[in-house]
C-alpha cells in the first residue's frame, strides 16, 4: 500500500504538488493520468524518494518514507522504470541487468530466468551494448532491470512513449501477467487512453499538482476524459 497525505512539493520556489492525497492498494493496477505538466512524473519521483517533500506524509507498506532516500526503495521491494528509460548505453544488456543485483535485498546473484521468458529478445541480445538496442528493446531492458530484484511494487513512467505497437502490446501483456500471476502492484503514468483502460483497473486523475478524481477504470467517464485529459 502506498499512501500520500497532504503532500506539498516544491522545486526551489515553485510549488508543483499541492495538498496531494492518494492511496494505492496492494495488488492493484493503478494508472495515473492528466495533461502535460500537471505533476505526474513529480508524483512518481516523490514516491521513489528522488524528490523531497516540503510537507505531508508518505508511507509505503506502512513504513514512513518522508525522510528516506531513493536507495531504500529497492530494499523494500519497489522497482522503478523512469521516463526515458535511462539504461546504460555503454554496458551490455547483461551488465545492465546485473547492476540491480548489487542491491542488498538481492540474495541471489543470478538474473531470474522468468525475465527472459517475459522478454525473449533480451536473451538473444545479452552481449549487445544497451545503446545499440532499438527504443522498444531498450524499454524492455529498462523494465527487466527493475524486475531483477523481484519487486512487489512496480512503478513505470510512460513506458510506451515512442514505442511501436507490437512492443506496446507486449508491455501490456507483461504488466497484466506480473499483476495477475505474481501479485505485483502496478503503478503507471500513462497518457494513452486505450492502454490505460487495458492495463489500469483504477484511475487517478491529476490537475495542477493535485489528485482531483480516483476510482475504478470503468468509472472513467467521457465527461472526465473531456474535462481533464483531452487536449
Ligand atoms: N527540475 C525541475 N525544476 C523546476 N521545475 C520542474 C522540474 N521538473 C519539472 N518541473 C516542473 O514541474 C511541473 C510538473 O512536471 P512533471 O514532469 O511532473 O509533469 P507531468 O505531468 O509528468 O508532465 P508530462 O506529461 O509532460 O511528462 C512542470 O511545470 C515542470 O515544468
From TrEMBL:
SMART domains: AAA. The keyword Acyltransferase does not apply. Gene3D superfamilies: P-loop containing nucleotide triphosphate hydrolases. It comes from the Bacteria. CDD domains: ABC_TM1139_LivF_branched. Keywords: Amino-acid transport, ATP-binding, Nucleotide-binding, Transport. Coiled coil: none annotated. The keyword Transport applies. GO terms for molecular function: ATP binding. Pfam families: ABC_tran (PF00005). Residues 2-231 form the ABC transporter domain. Belongs to the ABC transporter superfamily. PANTHER family: HIGH-AFFINITY BRANCHED-CHAIN AMINO ACID TRANSPORT ATP-BINDING PROTEIN, HIGH-AFFINITY BRANCHED-CHAIN AMINO ACID TRANSPORT ATP-BINDING PROTEIN LIVF. This is Urea ABC transporter ATP-binding subunit UrtE. The gene is urtE.
Amino acid at each position: 500500500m502506498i499512501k500520500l497525505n497532504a503532500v506539498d512539493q516544491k522545486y526551489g520556489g515553485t510549488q508543483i504538488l499541492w495538498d496531494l492525497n492518494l492511496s494505492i492498494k496492494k495488488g492493484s493496477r493503478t494508472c495515473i493520468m492528466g495533461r502535460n505538466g500537471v505533476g505526474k512524473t513529480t508524483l512518481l519521483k516523490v514516491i521513489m524518494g528522488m524528490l523531497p517533500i516540503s510537507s505531508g506524509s508518505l508511507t509505503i507498506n506502512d513504513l514512513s518514507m518522508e525522510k528516506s532516500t531513493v536507495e531504500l526503495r529497492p530494499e523494500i521491494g519497489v522497482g522503478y522504470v523512469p521516463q526515458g528509460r535511462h539504461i546504460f548505453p555503454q554496458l551490455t544488456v547483461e551488465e545492465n541487468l546485473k547492476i540491480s543485483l548489487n542491491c542488498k535485498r538481492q540474495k541471489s546473484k543470478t538474473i531470474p530466468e522468468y525475465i527472459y521468458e517475459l522478454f525473449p529478445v533480451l536473451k538473444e541480445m545479452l552481449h549487445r551494448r544497451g545503446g545499440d538496442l532499438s527504443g522498444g528493446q531498450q524499454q524492455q531492458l529498462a523494465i527487466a532491470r527493475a524486475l531483477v530484484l523481484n519487486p512487489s511494487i512496480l512503478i513505470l513512467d510512460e513506458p510506451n512513449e515512442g514505442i511501436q505497437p507490437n512492443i506496446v502490446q507486449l508491455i501490456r501483456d507483461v504488466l497484466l501477467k506480473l499483476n495477475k500471476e505474481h501479485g505485483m502492484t502496478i503503478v503507471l503514468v500513462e497518457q494513452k487512453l486505450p492502454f490505460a483502460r487495458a492495463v489500469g483497473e483504477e484511475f487517478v486523475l491529476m490537475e495542477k499538482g493535485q489528485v482531483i478524481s480516483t476510482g475504478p477504470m470503468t468509472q472513467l467517464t467521457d465527461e472526465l476524459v473531456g474535462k481533464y485529459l483531452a487536449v
